[in-house]
Amino acid sequence: MVVNELFPTNRIASDTCKVIYYYRTSPDRKRILFGGRVSATETNPLLSGPKLLEDLYRIFPQIEGIKISHSWTGTVAYTFDEMAHTGQHNGMYYSMGYCGSGVSMASYLGMRLGQKVLGLAEGKTAFDDLPFPTRPLYNGRPWFLPAVVSWYRMQDRIQYQQAARRVVA
């Protein structure tokens, strides 16, 4: 079974790019759940699904030819310090701002938050009660996102090309 070759330890994975891709198997290990940002703005899943599938083939060429069964979109909670944040505000516990790493971080920090609610010491994390920095001219709408995503994609391409040259040399 190919999924056992790709995910032998059944772990959630992501890459090291600035425009990140993340993936894991479904609980029954019959599907790969794969996500990432394919455009600088929110888009229709009928458009984003095929684009993600191309990237899935690039990362896992041995599954080229598989089909998409489901595709959806979601909002990415990205913080200006690129850090997840956990804490308590006005009696409400929170864990947020996974910056594109929610598949893995939400599970981990959700467990820690549950421990914190129960008063257990192991609920403490390095993400507790961090300040939420902002930027001038930011009004809640990320008008700057297209430029930032383009810049990050360019950096990712450069790093990928440099790594490929090192492998060849």
How would you describe what is shown here?
- Strand 1 (13-14) and strand 2 form a beta hairpin.
- This protein folds into 2 domains: 2-63, no CATH class; 75-133, no CATH class.
- It is 36% helix and 13% strand.
- The protein starts with a helix and ends with a helix.
- With 169 residues, it is of the alpha+beta class.
Quick structural overview:
This protein has helices at 2-6, 45-59, 102-117, 145-168; strands at residues 13-14, 21-25, 32-36, 85-89, 92-96.
Descriptors:
36% helix, two-stranded antiparallel sheet, globular, alpha+beta
User: Could you say how many structural domains there are in total?
Assistant: 2
Order of helices and strands: HEEEHEEHH
Shape: globular
Category by helix and strand content: alpha+beta
How many strands appear in the DSSP assignment? Answer: 5
**Largest sheet, described in full?**
3 strands, antiparallel
Percentage beta strand: 5-15%
Spatial order of strands in the largest sheet: 1-2-3
Mean pLDDT across residues: 88
Indicate the low-confidence ranges by residue numbers: none
